[in-house]
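hiii, so i know i said id send this last week but things got crazy w the move. better late than never?? heres the sequnce for the chain we talked about at the cafe, plus the structure i predicted for it. fair warning i was half asleep when i ran it
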Amino acid sequence: MTNPTPFDSEIERNRRQAARGSVNAMNDLAMRLGDRYRHTGDPADLLEGIAQLRTALGYVPDHPVRHPLRVGLSSLLHDHFLHFGDVSALHESLAGCDASIPMLDGENRSVAAMVRAETLILLAEHTRDPAYVAEAVESASRLPRVPAAQYVLGKALYVRYGLIHDHAALVDAARVLEESVLATPVDDPNYALRLNQLGDVLQRSAEHTGDESVRETAVRHLRDAMARTPGASRALLGHKVDLAAALRDRGRKTGDVAAAREGVALLREVLEATRPDEHPWENRCENYLIAVLDLVAQTGEIDVLDQAVEIGRSTRGGGGTRGMIPLLLGLLHNERFLHTGLERDLGQAIAAYTEVVETVPYGERTHAVALGNLGRAWFSEYGFRGDPEALRRSVTALGSAARASAPATTERGETQLNHGGVLYAQYELTRDPGVLAAAGRASREAAETEALQPIARTKAARAWAHTEAEAGRWERARDAYAFAVGLLPLVAPRRLARVDQQRVLAELDGLAADAAASALQANDPETAVRLLELGRGVLGGQVLQSRSDLSRLHAVAPGLAERLGTAFDRLPPAGRLMGAAADERHDQDVRLRHLLDEARALPGFADFLTPPDLDELLESAADGPVVLINVSGYRSDALIVRPSGVTVVELPGVTPDSVAGQAATFGAALAVSARPGAGETDAQTTAAGVLGWLWDLVTEPVLKRLGYTSPPSDAWPRVWWSPVGRLALLPIHAAGRFPDDASVLDRVVSSYTPTLRALRHARARRTRAGDDLVVVAVEDAKGARPLRGVEREASRIAALTRATRLDGAEATADSVRAALTSHTSAHFACHATSDPDDPSAGHLLLHDGPLSVLDVSALDLSDVRLAVLSACETSLGAHRVPDESLHLVSAFQLAGYPQVVGTLWQVNDLVARMVAVDLHEGVSAGEDVATALHRAVHRCRGRFDKTPTLWAAYLHSGR
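okay and structure toks below
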């Protein structure tokens, strides 16, 4: 039994009267049947309505009422075309309007003219005939300026854009559609339809220009239109398709996986509610396949990809855009090949692309897209087999696709990005400098295409820079790398969930190191320092910016300063958000950037809340030299930063491969040493060998340049280490060859800082006077082994100073957060763990669950002094994004602690207690924290000189 609708009773009443021969009843019955069809999608109602009107027309061959009846029939024939795809219905509709309009006047004539314009719009969309497009716009322009007519004109202008791709047509369409929406009461049944059309046009405008504020406005309109549409209405399906397109664009341009996933889910709902024999099936299937491709490109979820391939294969084709289904199937197979390496998928992709190229006329967008993807597939074939002919075909296809694509568009940018890559591969075969130059030009064009997604632009800029480096043009390489680094804030905007920010930054691992190395090759160490600052710690830099002092702005523009502070407060680091909550975060990020632009437009505020200039960065080293250790395939160096300038120490024996090898060796030794047994001694010897390698090739040359060639006789000098890339996974402070006083530990007191900005921020933090301490001790946490030494550690430390204890069940996440706001220092004795896949999920394990890196980063504490994390792996970064320093130590620094003590790997319970107690005893005796930790570790090394993994894990970060 079908569900009742609001039209049922009126339909039955009119059906009885129509059966008695009433023409008016036949017309009313047809109109209500049309309404019910649009509500339920049952084509039987549509066909009956058309039949009723044809019968009525037969009754009145010469009566004036015939002409309004023909217009009503023309309107239902629109629905017939949209459901069945029979273009003859549109031609009949147009003929009916043309015959009736001269015989009508007043409101009837206006309605007929509107139906005629809508018929022309549908014919233009279906045939892509410029004559129909021009006539549709001209016809709609003559309509009276009422909301319904403005809606039709907006649609006509939108169709014109689809043919000519002139953004001015979209601007015009949005303008008249906005007039239509504003003039339509919100309770009007047509309000949601018109609002949705405006949202759809704005979405396409944002896709064309990359304007994020326009996209977010589109998402709001589309979501609002969907919410205002009854759940049983068939119009809701179209609204879901349009919202999914906007979410797909958001996911594609910003890296927001939640948006991409929501779009796919919406389109699955639409497909499940659409019968394959309906005309919209093909178009909706195309939208679904595109959305899946974008999602899989970001997440690698092969199961979703497999489902999409099956749906694509079951689609007959012919009802959507010409050649689109084969093209999308090719893309699905190609994406699956990239994830699985199955040769069968690559062959199917090439066959599908070739089919589209051979069947779709040159000049159509689908042809150009297929040609570009055919070039990509041939390049995959070259990589798979090493066949030079496949590379030649790839170069040719991508070059042709670039020429067929409109300049400054997403398609052109993506094509040139790929074209640059295959040209560089051809250069590697031929060593032809002309080919290298062509590769650079293609990559540069892609990098400068603002419509292209930021991650793609950054990759293109990196490729462009590499061509300049390969040609030995180091100044140009430096500038191109600087362009790439400058795009990083757009690659990982605040609006994204932290896990998405990490994922996109991982794709650019090593960019900052190569950028700095190119500047050093250009004999420009100051720019090298600047690029390392801009290219590392991007996520931490966002938090530091939001914690900046706004008082200078407040003195000039207090209202703007208040709005800016509120915008920052609403954008703390976050997990995934969906729906309206995600929309609000995206809106807030766009609003924040507009506010920053407004502030920087004020006189004297051009550099407001921008990264520090070189002089400010150098001043960060006022308490002692900061050593940036940069490792790149171009060259490796230590950059000693002091207020007087930058000193370069070349490290010729250090390469990315050697660092990766030493890190892997050290990691394996740690794993073996943690298990008592026959291999433990060898593992400690191996670990000591890595510390010796660090001494010989990294730290000893630096200390020698600094003049620290022997143990100090009086005050210990301070050095801050800031290693770049995977070198951050190794204990620089513990480097040395023992027991000959040839070690960092015997020459200087070491501290770490992820960036100069972070150290500058730590120096600027106010610290409240007092030694009040909260000691958090969790011996038995759910799912973890008991820590039997925690009680003794906590008791010994609490006895040294005025301390608050949070033990066991008292140590909940809420109570710990509250205690952190009321104590200057904190000591944690508990379990901690890192997460290599999602470093922001690394956490301290409290009584009621985890306190994560993300949780701590979102805190904003003032007047605090020291956090001691006497737990495992609290300073262990992630291999995928080592330059982001995403771990608990950095999180506590971002939360406000200028000094944090942590560990690089899992530590022994007994040793942890010894080091922690020695540290606090030294601090209580008046030593600064770094020196107290240095002495504690030095004493521990004396006790366990043959087992470096027991003492080398402990480090001090900050100042």
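btw The mean pLDDT is 92. thought thatd interest u
miss u guys!!
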